[in-house]
Amino acid sequence: QLPGSRVGGYRLLAEILAGCLAADCVGPDGPEKAGRAWGRYLAGRPPLSPPLSAEASLRTLIALFAEIGFGTEVVDENGRPRVLLRRCPFRAVAKRHDGVVCTVHLGLVRGALAEFGWRLEVESLSPLAVPNVCALDLRPADGAGRVANDRSVER
User: Fold this and answer.
1) Interatomic CA distance for residues 141 and 145, integer angstroms
2) 3 state SS for 86-104
3) 3-state SS, one letter per residue, for the chain
4) C-alpha torsion sign, points 49, 53, 57, 60
5) What per-residue confidence (pLDDT) applies to 90?
6) CA dist 5 to 12, 15, 29, 65, 145, Å?
7) What is the pTM of this model?
8) What mean pLDDT is predicted for residues 128-136?
9) What is the pLDDT of residues 83-122, one digit of tens each?
């Protein structure tokens, strides 16, 4: 856990998965649902807040992932933001259960972006796109804020 952070590291993962089990959200979409709920919670926005701009959403998302314990870097990928996630705080568990851990991360991002007002949305999350780095590709949201053909977590 990083100094000053509300929750991080394995404690956060344990809280998310325990909440998932307690809410009986087992099944393939359970980890993402739990991650979304926690993403909304960790975003910490007051009710009825105006939506953040795409730029502010990106900055706030980066700060949230840094607080959780990731090293982050944003690069331009054909005019769209790509967030490189380094130093996964759940790396040891993700090596054996990437389908769960990476899907929780996807849910965290989607939950936070929903709280920020859906100015950005997930195009893809590519676990270990390069050694020890996951790539989160974002795009501007369409008018509805969600796209039905979202590629989610790629394998």
Assistant:
1) 5
2) ECCCCHHHHHHCHHHHHHH
3) CCCCCCCCHHHHHHHHHHHHHHCCCCCCCHHHHHHHHHHHHHHCCCCCCCCCCHHHHHHHHHHHHHHHCCEEEEEEECCEEEEEEECCCCHHHHHHCHHHHHHHHHHHHHHHHHHHCCCEEEEEEEEEEECCEEEEEEEECCCCCCCCCCCCECC
4) negative
5) 80
6) 11, 15, 28, 11, 29
7) 0.80
8) 87
9) 999 988 888 787 777 778 888 889 999 999 999 999 999 9
Q: Does residue 9 carry a pLDDT above 80?
A: no
Better-predicted residue by pLDDT, 65 or 13: 65
Q: Would you say residue 23 has pLDDT above 80?
A: no
Sort residue 40 into left (φ over 0), alpha (ψ -120 to 50) or beta.
alpha
**CA–CA distance, 83 with 77 (Å, rounded to integer):** 10
Other CB atoms within 10 A of residue 58 CB: 19
User: CA-to-CA distance for 46 and 123, rounded, in angstroms?
Assistant: 27
